[in-house]
Amino acid sequence: MDGDKASCCSSTAGIGQRTRDRNLLLTSAASNNQWSSSLFSLMPSWTQKILFKRESSITHPLHEDLSRPSVTSEFGVTFQKCAMVSTQRDPQVANIRLLINNTNTPSASNLSDLVLLDNITGLVVQGSTGNQTSDGFQVFRKMFLPVGDYYAVNYIAFINAKEVKSNGNLTLPAQLTFNSSSLNKTLLKAFFSIMGQDDPKARQSILQANSLEYSHFTFADALHERFPSDNQILEILAFEEPENMLQALKDLEVADLNRADAELEAHRGQICRDVIALSLKAMVAGDHLPPLLEKTMSSTFGSLFAGLDGEVREEYKRKMVALTAECDLETRKKMEIQARREAADREEAEELLNRVNEKSASEYRSLLDNLHRLEREHMQRCLLVKREEDFAKAYRQLAIFQRNEIHKIFFTQIKSALFKGELKLETAKTLLLDYSKRQGEIEELMDYLQANKKYHLSQRFASRECLIRNIRISESRAQGFLNTAAAQLISLINKTQRAGYLDENQMRILLDRAQAEVLSVRHKLENDLKHEKKKLHQKLMIRRRQEMLLKQKEHRKEQLSLDEATRTSKEIGPYLRQRQALLSDGEAASEGLMDRLDVTAAEELKGLRESLTEKAVEDLGRIRHGALAQELWKLDVPRLYVQRLLEEQSGELALRTQQLQQAERDAGQDARESLRKTRQKLKEELESGVAAQRELRDQERLVFTKLLSLPLSLSEEQLHEMKQEFHCCFSQLDSSLALPKIRTRVLLQNLQSEWIEAELLKLSQALSVPEVQQQSKMKKQRCKTRSKIEVLKQTVEDKIHIFEEPISEDIIEKAHGELLLERGRQVKAQENKLGEYIAALQFQKADKKSETFEIYTTLLSVQGLLLEELSMSETLTDSACAQILESRSSEIEELDRKLESELVHKESSRQQQAVLNRQRWISDGLGLLKEDGEMDSERQMSALLWQALKKCPRLIERHNQSLREELQSLVVFEDRLESLEMDVFLNLYSQDLRLAAYLSKLTVVPEGLLPRLLNFLLPASSQNELLPVLESIREKYSEDAGESDSNGEQTDSCRKRKHQGSWQALESKLRQDLINRGLDMALDACRKKESILKKPLPTRMRPSPSRRNSPPKLSTEAVSEQDSMNYAAVETEDALGKGEKIFIFTNQEDTTRPMHACPKKKKKNFLNSKKSTLVTSGKSLEGNLVGKSVYCGKNVNVIGE
């Protein structure tokens, strides 16, 4: 080549935020297993963390995705290695420049302890100030590099043409390590190559080679979906920094818990579908269901379940996208606010630092950077746990939605088959009864599977935590071993200098060379460890994948055999037991295999670290016995003296090795003992957790039974809806695995944030208090050396101490207590939801019945008005009116007799059925007691007692089930009686409508008068409610009008003229009476309100007199429990009938009849009250205005006579 060629490669420190490492992965739904139709089998662990990227050009404790060779970031630290090669000379000359630029970005921080390691293999360096090592490196050091400054190294080197020709090119990367308050220890790598020929695509080839480093091993198959955390635990063990391993393991635990929730939800959905299919097959086997109908229903269920899976999957994707966007936006806003706050702090600090010395300014900048780093980490942690909680809640909502939809699909299909006539009522009842029973068994099974899964995951976490502790202990031992060997080099030089064999200049030169050699050995150790870990990691991953795949095939084979048995079986109980055994055994086997693989991986990684560390110590020993000893001998240090020092150091190194090994063994023994205790505790928690969940289920069944024992009346359809609601609430009594753990993390983080804010507030207040400021001034005067920068430094140090303070035990206990309270509130909310649903059903029914009775009462009032008008106008005689009333009374008596006979017949049928049911339940219980079991003749009594104890829970459950069935039959029977009474009532109502139409025809009611009369009699009713009554009267009127003679028109005109004045007077009277009644009600309400307000209050409740024009004082003291009980009963009255409420507090001790002790009143027959109403139906018009009595005119008794 003629001319020069320039080359420059750079690396930029792109340090992203920790929250970016928690990516939400939407994996493909493709799967070849049985859960491929279920979203929850494919639900990725959305908290899965992208923990590592191997072979990255930048490594630091945060481990971001740095697959690009240069990344622009707010922490822009640029490291470059550039060269200008001149080909006109032989050998060729390269002018090389190393540049470190700490750019002035808003979040930049000061750098310290910079060590630049430059590879110069194949070069002959001229004019360099760095210390050269024996393995082809030169080292440069700089203690401090502030923000906005740069550090450059320039030197000339001759290129060895033989090296270039033999290798094709020279790869000479440079590495930079430094410390900063925001990044801790960071490594940057600048790639640099010298090509043998002029290749215009040289840089592109380098970058392509670099990009291939990031994904040298791909692990994307079905096994990755089933065991997503396998590669992550290996990456934690292999590539994570020891001090960050435990936090990474905790994050991984959350991901495992979410994956476990998804698997359990998939199992739940499949079990529910299998149970429904088996129930239909059992009905076919018992000749209760036609096979063709069973196939049709099974096909319908299958299509509906498939549609449900698609709906849930789409909803999941939508939620994930929305939550991801929301969380990213919040994170960006918080980071921008934090960056502006940090920039403002730096600007404020720079104004003061310009007037102090460099050392103080450097220390304060370092402290300020450290504080900002802690603030960012705290904020990022808060954002992380909040994101975890948002996603966990969204996932829980989807799971609850799917459970409820499965119940809804089943009940809807049964109802549809009943409506179409495809299913008999008794068959539907049997199906629903069996479904309710099996749902209880499914919930118990899922409770056990969840507790078992939690036990194994907690055991896995404890085992891995023990492994990490052992690795950290081994890491500490290896580091101590290496540090001891490195310190012996420095010690050898220092002892020789103190003995007088070296002067200061010689000692400094030897120390620089020794430090360079130590740095070179450490660098070689890190490179070798990194390279060997990669190879070992790949080998471990392949081995792990093979063994886990083999285990998965075995589990798949067992699953297929169970599916085959399910297709041919018709028994649900054996299926559930086999499913439980299959999942429990598979979980135990998988956890055992995973534990063994984790232990193997940890041992191999620990062995690799130890072997490489021993090799590095041997290298340092060779340097000490070889190069360093030779240098000392060249400086005329006595050989015997050097040999004696070397022998002493060898003995010290051996002794130190034994001490470190013993300490490692002791620590390992303690870790194993702690693991054993933890496993024992987890086993106890498993048993107690299952028992507590079973007790909770029994309590909710008891609540349902108590609700059924209330005076309810529900139709079959309403009872089915109530059962569906109960199953929806009952299925939500479990608690997911991940959400409580995430919620605990959120509570701890929130409480810790509150504590930090309180402590920072105390600190700021302490600085602003005048007394403290005065004491500070006095102290300044005494010390005479206390500047403002020192006060600020102390303040920053106090803040750093606050952020670094670990979470206290009080906060942990408070968080756990709050979690228990939240759990109790959730259970109570489910109970209230079920009670509110039942109350709503009863209220709607009662409201509808009340409206019907009110309209009917109004109809009777209209009849009374019409009869009164006919009697006053002498259109009908008194005898004719009496005859009308007597005929209606006889019709009512006949309907009453029919109703009584029907009620007696229904009651006798119900009692007979109840007796048959009790006999069946008793025989079932006796059959359970007579079940044969293994009996030891020598211990017959104990065996009998043991069998009785085993069968006792089943007997109790059967008794409770029979009680629930009896209560349900009573509820339905009550509704049938009400329906029978309502049918009779509607018949009576129809007859009264015809009578009202006939009377209106006789009285020739003017157009529009009848709606106005109804409005007067029912002022609270709307036109939509009154319109059906008017239409019914018109229909009856038109039917009677068709039967009238041809002279009807003349007669009607005469009647209109005759009754016109009476109708006008009646309408005016009704309007005035309604106004007067309203005024009287308002006056009564006001008087009642005044009397209540004038009642003397108890002494303890009287308000204390306050000063004039002074605001009222609110007491913040809590009312005692006794006071709250004494005034717990509250009455609410409508003072004016217009919404104004008066709350009346009464003493609960004076209550003689509590609500729960009120006896159930016997229902009053409506027809009996109807007869008495007709006899006394003419007392007052005022009763009509308030809807409380029936008005039929004045002096009806005289007419009746």
TrEMBL record:
<feature type="coiled-coil region">
    <location>
        <begin position="646"/>
        <end position="699"/>
    </location>
</feature>
<dbReference type="GO" id="GO:0007224">
    <property type="term" value="P:smoothened signaling pathway"/>
</dbReference>
<dbReference type="Pfam" id="PF12297">
    <property type="entry name" value="EVC2_like"/>
</dbReference>
<keyword id="KW-0472">Membrane</keyword>
<keyword id="KW-1133">Transmembrane helix</keyword>
<feature type="region of interest" description="Disordered">
    <location>
        <begin position="1092"/>
        <end position="1123"/>
    </location>
</feature>
<keyword id="KW-0206">Cytoskeleton</keyword>
<keyword id="KW-0812">Transmembrane</keyword>
<feature type="coiled-coil region">
    <location>
        <begin position="313"/>
        <end position="377"/>
    </location>
</feature>
<feature type="compositionally biased region" description="Low complexity">
    <location>
        <begin position="1096"/>
        <end position="1115"/>
    </location>
</feature>
<keyword id="KW-1003">Cell membrane</keyword>
<keyword id="KW-0966">Cell projection</keyword>
<keyword id="KW-0963">Cytoplasm</keyword>
<dbReference type="GO" id="GO:0005886">
    <property type="term" value="C:plasma membrane"/>
</dbReference>
<keyword id="KW-0175">Coiled coil</keyword>
<protein>
    <submittedName>
        <fullName>EvC ciliary complex subunit 2</fullName>
    </submittedName>
</protein>
<dbReference type="InterPro" id="IPR026501">
    <property type="entry name" value="Limbin/EVC"/>
</dbReference>
<feature type="region of interest" description="Disordered">
    <location>
        <begin position="1038"/>
        <end position="1062"/>
    </location>
</feature>
<dbReference type="InterPro" id="IPR022076">
    <property type="entry name" value="Limbin"/>
</dbReference>
